[in-house]
Amino acid sequence: MDGARLILNARYFHIAQTGEKATKYAFVAEAAAGLVNYIATRESVIYNYDEHYKEVSATEAQREAINQFLEVSPDLELSREFKAYDEDRSAANASALISRAAQYVYGMTAEGDVKPSAPATRAQRERIQEFVNKVPAIRQTPEYSDYKASPTRENASEVLSHALEVGLANAADPETLEIMLNYIAERPGVVHNEGKVHGLFTVNGAADLAAEKEAIAAHTGNIYSMVFSLRREDADRLGYDRQDAWSQLFAIKADKIAQALRVPTSKLHWVAAVHNTKHHPHAHFIAYSTEQKSRIYLSEDAIEQLKSEFVSEIFAEERHQIFTPREEARQQLEDRLETLFTQLEHNSNAAVTDLLLPEKLAALRKSIESASGRHVYKYLPKDTKAMVDKLLDEISEVPEIKELLTEYNKYQQQLEAYYKTPDEPKPLSAATTRSNLYPLKNLVVQYALQFEPSPPLTPKTENSSTKTGSTSGFSYSDALDEPENAQMNEPFKATWKTNDISSWRDNMKVQSSSPPYDGTAEEKYRYAQYLRYDEKCPQDAILWYNLAEQLGHTEAAYQLAQYYLQKGEDQDVELGNYYLLKAKLGFEDTLLDSVNAMQLQAISAGNTYAAAIADFGPPEAEEKKQQHAISRAAYFLGRIYTTGIEIANIDGIESEDLPALQVATDPHKAAAYFEFAYRSGYKHAAYYLGNLYFHGKLSPADKPDYERAAGWYMADTENPYCQFALAKMIEHGQGFTPNVETAEILYRKCLNANDYLTAESSYAIAQMQNNEQLPLTDMQKLYKTAAEIWLKDDHPENHIHLRLARMYEYGLGVPEDLSLAIDHYKAALKTPETEYKLGQLMQRIDGDATEIYAHYAAARVGMLYAEEHRPTSATAQQAVRLATMYRYGLGCDADHETAVHWYTVAAERGSIYAQQRLEVMEMQRIRQEQRAAEYAEKQQQQQNLSFAARLLNAIGNALCRQTLRDQQSATATTDRKQRRMQRRLKRALGQKEDYEQIFQ
Predict the structure, then answer these.
(1) What pLDDT digit, counting tens, does each position of 340-377 carry?
(2) Does the domain spanning 786-919 belong to CATH 1.25.40.10?
(3) Residue 43 · residue 187 · CB < 8 Å
(4) Contact residues for 1 (Cβ-Cβ < 8 A; gap 6+)
(5) What is the DSSP letter of 658?
(6) pTM
């Protein structure tokens, strides 16, 4: 019989989330639950059986099911299972009878043979036509062919059941799914007792159908549905018409399935059911990771490997009988080829001589010797490999070789027939691609080299096509050599939303702006890039990155990692690192398919690019599409090793296994991958190589290597990121003579590249104009352009907050607004500098005095700490600010001497302002001393005048008193004379004295 002995169909789906359209990859929850229910209860399912059922009476549900089957087919009573049940109505016998009843009603006799049946019902015919109209692929099935040849009731039932499986795998619209789910519920023989009688099982035995349906409907990750199908005769002969055989097989191969799905075995959950159908008895196997967010994926290679694993177990004895003669044929083929080359040396084989093999071997030898690296087939250039293959094909026409190759192909086809349609017989060059014939290619290479001694090999020097330039008297033509070895202290990162060169111009490669709902993984990825970069809708892009990643797109996993690792409300470091690790593994898998796998493995082992090509030769050219994939994979691995991966926790991975998953930052490995990517055609890698040199990550003590940095930037001068990097170096004189005019030209080339470069370049030019390095032409316009881009970002980077704060403080491109400036300083990271600016600005708007004092105090403490612990990074400005705070008592008590100390420090660091402050303070000191002296002199003068005044006053007072006394004395004399005259007069008149009158 033609066709494979084991067929494995595998597909995956996930449960559609709110707002997501149902497709063949996105099931609504009801459809997923319906699929599980169908697998567990369809007509031919082998129902669960447990030994302990022998001691338990048949359940009410079992008895009801048996009665239903007897009503449909009374002659079921003739079966041996019914007789056993009739004698002992245990749950075990009931289960066996139900399984047989399903087969009996379905179309088998009590002995297991297909029985004659009545014609298909009208309902069956209508439903079949409905299915075929919706899913035309059903017409290609053997079940449908049998039905068309003989439209009996059992053939109709068989084609409907198989059509349902084909349909569920291919249906892409809700209407088709609904039709099929209705059939699940209405088909003949279905059990309607909520899953109490079913055939679903797990590694632990019978499954809880209701619980499994609920779990799958609620799962948020990918779910894999596989169908392992055998021929009827193989299943009967090898015992795979029973549930226990499949159950044991799945238990044995669970670790292999988990490995293929890249899921820890402990996290793999699976359910299965066996359908003992007429044509192809098969087992349904549904698997998913218990980690809810897991996006498991089964590659084509993994499917082939699973087929091989299951075939090796199921057909072990048969295949062994084929392996032995095939191996004998292979050995004979190799021996005969060696003999042929020996005859060639003596010209003793006319058939060989007629092929002109000596001339061809000589040409091959010359081609091999011209190649650098190891002289084995795998590492030879593509053209040389083609010469080897052509020679093998010509040799395969030699009659004796052709006969042995035919014998070998016969056995090889027999082995392939177990799990795929055998390939047509291949010429020797194609046949030798198989691992067990591969040595024949190297045999040809060895004999070619033996014709005469090979000269010593010199590693091929690769001439760089890099554009060169000259700056400050040196050339960058040699700047693309192997990176030096050094240590890297901290990662150099690019954020998801800004500096992502990997997508520059690649996002333009979309064929349509319409969503590719049924598109490939690559189409979904390109659409995500389109949304992100062209439409500026990053949140919408995330959905499509997810859809692409679920289909196995590795770059989509990398973009998701960058998204979840960025700062902001969506940051999820654990999930981001999970995607980053998944991307790393995917890129490494991609590189395994490269013809340059040995060079890449050497790089992975820690060798530099130069060391790798010295051992294995420079990268070979590959098929265009493959080379693009390989070079990008190497580029992304360079990005990953630039930042590293820190895994804190992954569901299903034990804590002691986590260290093996960590990826340390390794700038040298990153540089090797970047250079491989560049040499393989991915020119954008030059930018990241330049960054590593620019930031000193490849030099001792983190010393920047501006020459090599500039050389790599010049290697991709059409890239605006490289233009921007060169502009910065030229502006600041890093490896170049400073030249603001040249820098401006390069900056202006970047103004329309993307938002990131437009904003950065606009700001850089505006700053040069503001600092009077360039004529003041469009400064405000440029500042405005930068501000408009930055203000659209909900979560700007720290340095952007600082720039916007300064722009609002001074009205650069935006209206002057100190409140907004304060807001941006507060949003930035708290540093001594931002605390100082906050204190300044809040003073200007008469802010809260306590808060102002606190900001200045925090700034002072931070700056003093930096002066003590990081003296090499201390600046003149920092010293000036410390002096200012001590001088005016900002955040501390005023302290003139300490203020003078910090102004002196700032002046020593080159601050003209600090020197001026010191001069002013000295002048103030001198003026104060002069004023003090003048004041003292005035005080002395005032004191002298005061003494004279007091003396004069005393003399005057004395004179006044004496005069008064004199006056009083004179007055007293006059009064006595008057009184004597008055007394004489009174006596003369006969009057008495005053005192006499008083006594009287």
Answers:
(1) 776 665 554 555 555 566 778 888 888 888 877 667 78
(2) yes
(3) yes
(4) 231
(5) G
(6) 0.47
**What confidence tens digit (pLDDT) does each residue in 102-126 have?**
655 544 444 444 455 567 777 678 7
Burial of 893 by CB count in 10 Å (0-12 exposed, 13-18 middle, 19+ buried)? Answer: exposed
Beta-sheet pairing, 223-230 with 282-289: antiparallel
3-class SS of residue 425: coil
Contacts of 476 (CB under 8 A, 6+ apart): 466, 468, 469, 470, 707, 710, 711, 714
Q: For 509-547, what is each residue's pLDDT tens digit?
A: 454 567 887 788 888 898 888 888 777 788 888 889 989
Which comes out higher in pLDDT, residue 893 or 326? Answer: 893
Sketch the domain layout of the chain as residue ranges: 6-48+117-314, 49-116, 317-449, 470-524+537-738, 786-919, 920-995
| Per-residue burial over 235-272, b = 16 or more CB atoms within 10 Å of its CB, e = otherwise | beeeebbbbebbbebbeebeebbbbbbbbbeebbbbbb
Q: What six digits make up the tokens of 216?
A: 């799958």
Q: Residue 471 in 3-state DSSP?
A: strand
Which among 818, 820, 810, 750 has a CA at the least distance from the CA of 785? 750
Q: What is the 3-state composition of the chain as percent helix, strand, coil, each rounded to the nearest 5?
A: 65, 5, 30
Work out the angle at residue 218's Cα, subtended by the Cα atoms of residues 215 and 220, and round it to the nearest 5 degrees.
Answer: 115
Q: Give CA separation, 216 vs 42, 55, 268, 917, in Å.
A: 19, 33, 13, 75
Radius of gyration over every alpha carbon of the chain, rounded to an integer in angstroms: 48
The average pLDDT across 291-295 equals: 66
For residue 624, what pLDDT is reported?
Answer: 78
Classify 672 as helix, strand or coil.
Answer: helix
Q: Are strands 26-27 and 6-15 parallel, antiparallel or unpaired?
A: parallel
User: For residue 859, which amino acid is it?
Assistant: A
Non-local (6+) Cβ contacts of 265 within 8 A are: 254, 255, 258
- β-pair type (223-230, 268-275): unpaired
Q: Give the three-class secondary structure for 779.
A: helix
